[in-house]
Amino acid sequence: MTARADLLVLTAGAAVVAALLLVAGWKLAHGAPEPPLVESLRDGRAGKLRFASFNAEWPDLASGTFRRTPVEVRAELLLPEQDAGRSPAVVVLHGSDGITPHYLRYAQSFVQRGMAVLLIDSFTTRGVDDTIGDHRAVTPYSMLIDAYRGLALLQTHPHVDAARIAVVGWSKGGMVADWAARERYRTLLAPDGLPFAAHAAFYPWCGEQHAPVQLTGAPLLLLVGEHDDWTGAAPCVDHVNRVRAAGYPAKLVVYAGAEHAFDYAGRFRQYLGHAESWAACNYIAGDTHFRVVASGELLPWSRFAEYLRSCTSAGAHIGANAIAGREARAELDRFLLETVARGAAR
User: Does 346 reside within a domain?
Assistant: First the structure.
């Protein structure tokens, strides 16, 4: 699988150009004073912080040697009004646009519903504003490590219920939220800790699957657009069918007429000619070979570059869809209530 390491470039960010012009004041500026580096949240703190993580490519995870390139990652912990008990929590993972008002609005809505939120910024301390034009700049494997390091940190907080922490991600972050449910990654990244209690992903790329299907068993929710020509709906349909056939709890909602970034605010539709669409890429990964879902063909990893050339294409659309966005937010609220937030303030 080393052959694909430099080629796994996920076109997974919701790149809303108009929104990007408005977010300079929301992003964590490179020149701002560094928040404190923390190894534990036992002191009950909230606010901006940094925690230790690692940069990684696929071979680093495959070999278990991902600790070779340490990095400090920024995050912000938001807490609901405290009572005598412990709150459920959500780890929020952004897409390739980085921290924007889109994710902050979701984070604030979770807090209003009685949940703590750890909003992870996987880009700033890696010297990256966004990965819209270069998705290799921060790999999904690095973001996966960030997610599990954030989970471990949240589990130390005296006002957070360690057994009720969900992860929610969008696009590139949504793919990471989905991958975090796979037992191979939990075993590697959180061997002694509790896993995430629930996983929700907006328009992730679902085209890399594993056989056999082995998940942590936490519920999985995928929310995708019917006409998403960037990361695609069809691979997610196949993925969820395989997950459910293996006996794991999973739900997929496909929103009619919706495209990538359908839950963003405003009214826009844009064609991004420089985007690389992976909507037609769908394969099942093995140790020495991968199987193309569409044809059933079993190929060695030495032919992965050839396969990518055949399944990727240039250009993709993004667009807000008010109806789909509203329905997806309601679906997410129900999912979190059923999995982690029951009993939290409403």
Answer: no
Report, as ranges of residue numbers, the positions in the chain whose pLDDT lies below 50: 1-30, 346
**Torsion angle of the four alpha carbons 292, 254, 14, 147, in this order, in degrees rounded to the nearest 10:** -70
Q: Total domain count for the chain?
A: 1
Report how far apart the first and last C-alpha atoms of the chain are (Å, whole number).
46
Q: Is the pTM of this model over 0.70?
A: yes
Q: What CATH number is attached to the domain comprising 70?
A: 3.40.50.1820
Dihedral of the alpha carbons of 236, 241, 246, 252, in degrees to the nearest 10: 60
* Owning domain of residue 274: 2-341
CB atoms within 10 A of CB 334: 12
Residue carrying structure tokens 């990727």: 312
At residue 345, the pLDDT reads 56
Residue pair 35/74 in contact (Cβ under 8 Å)? The answer is: yes
Give the C-alpha separation, 23 to 102, whole Å.
10
Both tokens assigned to 11: 């076109």
Amino acid found at 95: G
